[in-house]
Write the structure tokens for this entry.
Amino acid sequence: MFYVSYALSELRRRGGRTFLTALGLAVGVMLVVMVSGLSTGLDRAQATVLKPLTGVGTDMTVTRPIRLSTSGGGVFGRLSPQERNALRQENGGGRRFDFRNLKPGKHFSIDRFVATSQLSFPGSEVTAVGKLSDVALAAGSLTLTDTHVSGTVPKNLPQPGSGGFGGRFGRRFGGAPPGGGFNGPRSINFTTRTVTGIDIAHPDVAPITAAQITRGHGLRSSDGAYAAVLSTNYASLNGLATGSKITVDGKAFHVVGLASSPLGGTASDIYVPLSTLQSLAGYRGRVNALQVRATSGSSVSSVRHEITSSFKGAQVTTAADLAKRVGGSLSTAKKIANTLGRALEIVGLLAAVLIAVLLTLSSVAKRTREIGTLRAIGWSRALVVRQVSLEVLVQSVLGGIAGALLGLAGIAVFNATGMRLQATISNPSTATSPFGFGRFFQGPGTSTVPTTVHVTAPADLSILLLAVLLAALCGLIAGAIGGLRAAQLRPASALRSVE
Amino acid sequence: MQTANTDTAHESVPETASYDLHDVTRRFGSGSSSVEALRGVTLHIADGEFVAIVGPSGSGKTTLLQLLGAMDRPTSGSIVCRGRDLSAMSDGNLSSLRLTTLGFVFQQFNLVPTLTAQGNVEAALAPAHRGRVRAESAARLLAMVGLLNRRSHLPSQLSGGEQQRVAIARALANDPAIILADEPTGNLDSTTGQEILDELRTLSEQRGKTVIVVTHDPAIASSAHRVIRIRDGAVEE
């Protein structure tokens, strides 16, 4: 107790230096607490963002991206003739708007469905994947871009040859993006929207999950074949709500729910039962995405390997892949926290140690006579080092506690600002279709749907304790250096010094 | 100057000798700028002696006292304190010797300013005694020098004489055989100086302690059993 009360009395006597040393360490500790809190907050924000994919049991999504060579090489060349023909048919060959039978003055409304960045594959692949070992559940889905054209055929439009209005319009539509000279009538409305058909028998691994439903409910078999869930954005833009009707390819769908857009998943405008979309779009028995749940987290890697080995052209995206592709301000903030934040922590702590060492050395220099006296009355070098270290340790712990409290206050201020960051997941499979649709038909699909997330920095008790321990360690280092310096002098030399 | 053979010195020193110095030299600095503070000092101080070391300023008195107090090491020669050759001892053993065998009283009192009178005495007891024993010993020592009622005062709240009595209590903390005092009355008025002198004489005469005092004070010199005169680093006894 004597040593502690001696240390405290010395700290009180040199209040200014004690305050400065404690303040230096407090700033260092505050930086550690805040940066760690922010970093954890950003990690949790990212986990929240990815939860729609990772939290409901879907471990991976299997697609067949358009990365095929028009020359017939690559994966496309290895497909069966039947499969190649099916893909050609659904991506352009023969799938044109047919305006040939339209007469001037006649109103028309036509929907055309095409796969955009994902090629379709037979539903048998879903069954095959479902039978793989370590696969708990597999369900297919189909996402298509619905191009809706409506309007009235102009009465004075010339109809040369057999193509007429339909031929000219249709050729241009089927071959290249508009804007390069199309002089069509202004009375024609042209809109695109994405529609996803989901397997309502397997809602747990559907592209849209119950967690994303913000109004109404998800698709159920009891809702019938013509029920739809709309994305909140699409519903808002078109003034739709639950209970509304929406027409797709001339069929009226009853809106049963609204859903928020998932990050990295299929962010479609409209969700309908899979079989209904397959029937409307002429994709019977085909899907272009497959959601898979592995039996355990550890088997994800082996399942991925099995799928890519057995499924030609398949691209398997796991939650880990998605995490790597997170972009936007959330990603930027995470990078800053991981680099600049860590650098700040290290620089802050080093500066704190340096301040503590310098002030301790300065303090020891001013106490040379006192330390010489202690040595003269029998204190050993080790005892002097211990006493100086104890003094610095006490002020370091005080600084550490102050720093932890400042860090908590900083975190509270940060949380009070309600910082919101955006996250996006870039889609690596945004290649142009080899069949001529190109980017013109690339709808909002599965690419970069931003998600806004509220970042909250947690106050982790273990980080607070670690920070105080770090401060104590800094104090011990500074105390040991100062104490050794103090104990180095012979008592006679110390006593000769003038304070 | 030759360094004395420690074994020989050891054998030649009777058990009752507090000190035996043989041809002790202390030089500060090196080369042409070096200063020889002590030159070939040979001394024998018996247990229980009250010795005054006198001499003009800069003659080497304090340097000699610091060598006797194991606070410094001689450049050459040997110092044997109660049968132990100081030049052969480690720093830790010298600390231990200072703690158990030697007590110091300084001209400037050298009390720790942040500690009370009690705390200053406890500082000397702390390395060897714990808790209640330490506190009781410190209180007893302060009572012995008549300062028990001032035990909780800081040095800044004590007079010069009181501070020096606290320093004496501290010097006696571990019941040392030898008391070394450097100008103990130098900063005191004559009345208080006389009181301190009486304290030191009592320690020597009634408690059998060896008291070695460096002083300019003729009163102390005349009270001592023996006066060692030192001039230009050499002893003129």
